[in-house]
Amino acid sequence: MGNLPASEWLNTLLALLQACQLGLLSLLHKTGLVGDSHGQPAWPWAHRVSGENLLIDLGQARQLAVSLGLLALAAVLLLAASLLLWRRHRRSAGGTALVAAAALLFAPWPQASVVLVSAYPTSFHRSPTGFSALSVEQGGRLYAQQCVACHGADGRGQGPLAEAQPVWPPDLAGPLLWRRADGDVFWRIREGLRDRHGRQTMAGFADRLSDADTWAVMDYLRAQAAGQSLRRAGRWERPVAVPDFEVRCTGRPARAVSDWRQRHQRLRIVADGGGAVPLEDPRLTTVLVRAAPAASDEGVDCVADAPGAWQALALVAGAAPQALAGTQLIADRDGWLRARGEPGKGAWSDDDLLCRTETAKPSDRPASADGLGALIARMDAEPVRFVKGGFVH
Ligand code: HEC
């Protein structure tokens, strides 16, 4: 595709496909042709375009892009042909229509089995929870009751009942859940899973979990996967947001963490360790998070002691709640957690950047006098993208 790097044209193609599907769904819903499923518009077909497959199969993605281009060309040519016909230029109209037909005939149509995957009524659903700390906490409780026996305490599929299952439970802390659209995971948790022969491999939880419970469990899985990725690979291999909770800053009404994301402002979260709070810094807002409310918040500008916040942060930071004190986390302007400073650390360095893209060459990186400045410059220059179910969100 010309000089564009593979990811650019592919992202454009995937974004276009996703927008078409969502637009179509919204249109059908507005005109009353499709109803609701679990509170959101229901996808009416048994298939959808698979961003997850196209992302992996570049060849097929390229064929699809070329075919769609030719399809658009054919549409324009047919329009031109009908205009010509209307003006009684029969011959030219016939010729134009022939070229249109040839464009369609010779288009390198990709394989349907790659482009299309099974879909459910909830395939395009979005989580309504906003990835809140409370939802992560609620999800954690449900996970411990309903899922841990098979999926294991760390989500990697080593629970005591794992061996007795018809297939081994997958690693829920690995890349699997990122290949799936949220709405598909929601459906599968509720309705269960079957193998190719129709044999049930996991029973559904529709009778034990409400819709809200199901979304909460998924928030927990996401937070757990982030922490596991830090423990296993020393990196957040996929972007994770700061779980949302309430923050109180002196002299201002309480705000949610997600407010900073909406305003494109950076955030530094400091888990209260009893020691000195880092100095205020004009480049980011510093929020002191406490496990429980303190007698006085004097001398601290922004504080959070909302229930669940400490536990959710510990989970995404890959630390036990009792070991979180003193940890610092930095979120970029898009709200993604990018850097972690472990308790007692001195200055920030490049090694603390734990969620990265390698877009810029090291020599092109902006220079900065201090460690934090360099980190911030790099976060800004190399934003990360969140890809879920093959589509950028
Ligand atoms: C009795 C054992 C068992 C329990 C309990 C269980 N699972 Fe599973 N789970 C499995 C097995 C086995 C698979 C693999 C099924 C397959 O691939 O066909 C699986 C697969 C999954 C998947 C992957 C779906 C996919 O798209 O491939 C998710 C997500 C999941 N489970 C979530 C949960 C959640 C959430 C709970 C608790 C509410 C739960 N499971 C409870 C056994 C269990």
Task: Write up what this structure looks like.
This protein is an alpha+beta fold and 393 residues long. It has three domains: 6-38 and 48-118, no CATH class; 133-233, Cytochrome c-like domain (Cytochrome Bc1 Complex, Chain D, domain 2), CATH 1.10.760.10; 246-358 and 369-392, Glutaredoxin (3-Layer(aba) Sandwich). It is 41% helix and 12% strand. It is built from 13 helices and 15 strands. Strand 5 (193-194) and strand 6 (200-202) form a beta hairpin. Helix 6 crosses helix 12 (309-316) and helix 10 (211-233) packs across helix 12. The radius of gyration is 25 Å and the shape is globular. The two termini are 23 Å apart. The relative contact order is 0.10. The site of heme C has 21 residues, from helix 7, helix 9 and strand 6. Heme C (HEC) is lined by residues 146-147, 149-151, 161, 165, 167, 169-170, 172, 180, 185, 188-189, 193, 195, 201-202, 205, 217.
Helical content band: 40-55%
Strand order of the largest sheet: 8-7-11-10-9-12-13
Q: SSE order, as H and E?
A: HEEEHHHHEHHHHEEHEEHEEEHEEHEE
Here the CATH topology of the largest domain equals Glutaredoxin
Number of strands: 15
The proportion of strand residues reads: 5-15%
Name the features:
Cytochrome Bc1 Complex, Chain D, domain 2, 3 domains, 393 residues, 7-stranded mixed sheet, binds heme C, Glutaredoxin
Characterize this entry briefly.
With 393 residues, the chain is an alpha+beta fold. Helix content is 41%, strand content 12%.
